[in-house]
Amino acid sequence: MSGLQAVYFDGESTDGQPVTLELDARQLLHVRGTGCGIDLAWPLVEVRVSERIGASRRRLYFPDGAQCETADNDAVDALFEGRVPAASWLLHRWESGLSYAVAALVITVAAAWVAVVWGVPALAKQAAFALPAATETYIGRDALATLDKLVLQPSKLPETRQRELRELYARMTSGIQGAATYRLELRQGGRAGANAFALPAGIIVMTDELVELAKDDRELEAVLAHEIGHLRQHHMLRLVMQNSAAAVLIAFMAGDLTSLTSLAAAAPTMLLQASFTRDFEREADDFSLDYLAKRGIAPEYFAAILRRLEEKKRPGRKDGASDYLSTHPSTRERIERARGKI
Amino acid sequence: MSELYRPGEPVKLQFTGSASEYFRIWIVNLCLSVLTLGIYSAWAKVRRKRYFYGSTLLDGAAFEYTGNPVAILKGRLLVLAVFTVYSLAQHVVPLLSLVLALVVLALLPWIIQRALQFNARNSLHRNVRFGFNGGKMQIFGVLLVAALLVPVTLGIGYPWYLAMKRRLFVENSRYGSQRFAFSATTGDYYRGAMKISLAFVGFLAGSIVTLGIGLLPFYLLLRAYAEVVLARLAWRNTTLAEIRFDCGWTVGGLFGLYFVNALGVMLSLGLLVPWAAIRTARYKLERMTLQSPQGPAKFLAAAADDVGAVGDEAGELLGFDFGL
Ligand SMILES: [Zn+2]
Questions:
Q1: Looking at CA atoms only, how far is residue A111 from chain B in angstroms?
Q2: Into how many domains does chain B fold?
């Protein structure tokens, strides 16, 4: 150890003095000024050293509040060999090699993927089933009120037809465990077109346009069963929770990205939302197909209404025609799944 | 070691950070933050700041950041808890969320004060701490202007707010026991705002003429212009004892920087974020100069208390910062 060049700042004023640091045999660190009268000595154990971060300046802190600043990182490491905390040393090693950096990148992407694709949905599922029904009811009432204000109109179906549909629905739910609290709401779809959706709090909305599109009530039964499947799994609530949780999680984890977070945090959530919904749709489809099988209804009815919805969407009508389809897996895939159950 | 105080000669800040080095620090920070579900992000933030401060040299001596990660973590958890309760309450008990919002609003001056104190106190140069002395009532006054006058006057009060905010910040900041001084007037800020408004008209015209294709470049150009106008206004009117500051950013330089940064970050799917951060720091820091016409100056340290980081995050969110 032959002299570490540093600048000494006493902490009282901005004056800095060039000094040389040397360790003697008794583990005393001598601080000697090269052009001034500084001549100090501290036991090495009482001197604290800042972490090594890249090639940035390093500091030695003395017990009296004075410090030394130096760019000679290697000499500092040599001086404090064995005294630097293991975590700090490991961190610097990790930051030192390109291959370690690549490993960090791979781990980061993998961990973020697992957290968002698996961890968040699992947590949301737990939370959704544990949440008091009152909370879900509240969110659901809110959602329906908003939809009524923005998109939906009261149903224009004849009174007798409405009663028929309600009876059909009551027959269905009486045979499904836990479905007694679910409610059917008939609405004119307006911009939402032929559509059906399951809101939290057990509300199923079915539009007049969908009712008119169906050629057989068993087709509607299949769609309603699909929506009941959504409700039983609290899909909507889970989706809301997943999206907000994922956004918060990413924003929190990426605290290091600062300015970019607002922009970047939204993107992965939006990308992943599609696949969240896909899994939910499959679950709901499975429930519907099970239901149809139990009632002795051919899955063809489900396939038929799906096909007709798809046809209705295709020609010319751009967006808004059927949100129901856009968030769902490809219709062909679903029809094939329905047929596979035959 | 007294180059800085050589009479008349301007001294430049120097930045020694490198993109490849910071990339490795950044990715390790990110990795540990993800693995610890964000807990480590407080340590990551300190490490990042220590790297940038420790790579910024003035007159041969580096800056130093001494923020305590545990304090920052507590601050973050508090912000997160308040935010979570607020967003949950919005759905379930709207009244509670309203009460919560009012409480946070009432505490805002205190939070901002703490944030500024924390940031300043943990910044050192030559083993002398910076500091912030602004009072809660002063901060409250500035926020009141922002909240009430700016919307009521349809934004005409905004330059006034900017001037007040900057004055509050600069005049209450100190290095050691020496306070900074600020000489820009509200009128100066209105003149600056006029220039930026004209540039905004140019931005709209340019975006329309190019049928929207020029939207991003023109936006970056506008942003660069606004930043240069405001930074020059702020720094050329700031003094520390007899030391004067100057900011040599140019619109073209800043625009080129932002344009290439945006392109690089987008094409690399975010992997070049650290590279962009280093380029930005180098450009902005190395064009800052200090000048002391009177010759040698010496600053004395001041005695001060410890400050927690409760407000640190909120302060950053609200843009109360040195803004370099
Ligand atoms: Zn569905």
A1: 7
A2: 1
